[in-house]
Amino acid sequence: MKLDILAFGAHPDDVELGCAGTLAKEISLGKTVGIIDLTQGELGTRGSAELRRQEAQEAARLLEVKVRENLCFADGFFVNDKEHQIEVIKKIRKYRPEIVICNPFDDRHIDHGKGGKLVSDACFLSGLRRIETTDEDGSPQQAWRPKVVYHYIQWKDLRPDFVVDITGFLGKKLEAVLAYRSQFLDEDTKEPQTLINSQNFRDSITYRAQDLGRLINKEYAEGFNVERYIAVKNLSDLI
Question: Which InterPro entries does the record match to this protein (predicted)?
Answer without folding.
Answer: Bacillithiol_biosynth_BshB1, GlcNAc_PI_deacetylase-related, LmbE-like_dom_sf
